[in-house]
Design goal:
Number of strands: 15
Helix content: 25-40%
Number of helices: 10
Strand order of the largest sheet: 6-5-4-9-12-14-15
Structural class: alpha/beta
Largest sheet: 7 strands, parallel
Amino acid sequence: MWHEERHTRIRDLLSTSGQVSVERIVTELGVSRETIRRDLVELAARGEIRRVHGGAVLTGDEPPIAVRHATRVREKRAIARKVASLVESGQTIFMDAGSTMNLVAEALATRTGLTIVTNAVDVAARFASRPGNDVHLLGGRFDAQIGCTNGSATIAEIGRYQPHMVILSPVGIDAKAGASSFEMEEAEIARAMCANARRIVIAADHSKIGVRSRVAWCPADRIDLLVTDRRAEKSRGIAALGKAVGDIAYA
């Protein structure tokens, strides 16, 4: 099968389901894993796809938020518990939106004496449902699909705070590109939060290790701590990240 024909078939598989595993591509195309790996590297370099652990997704969108909430929940809960153990009473924390952040909020909501500043409605609601914490929901343009605020007004409000820590979960984290996201609005919020926080903590499961998304927002050497799950120890790119970020903690 010719080079461009393989690429066309891979695009067709992705256009049907939005994501596809390497195993399925190998089966459908009848070629080696190494050939498919090279094809995915080339398509990702062109910006046509985004490589993820075990396969690829279209770059046109992240998976829907409902899908993300149901994906790798065990790993994300373990990461959330580890992140929660780092937070002390009396601290002010920035948090953004996303499935991992909802689980971090769930783990932290039992604590008291925290000031939480977030653009995510679900995160704010988790903390507000229990007494003992001060919750600030950032204003701005509301994105109903994700349930968060963004835009220039949100960024302006972020500038008012100087928190002890920011906890964020990117689409991907790579030693060269750092933490990145697909949506420009999400990246701008994350970048602003990182600029004002004293400590930057990234919560990312193994599927995000070594992945580069469209918009980079925090260089790896500015990240104080990466919290991930044990499967990340076998991920491509984890060794380089270990040299680039301040520290890595495994949940």
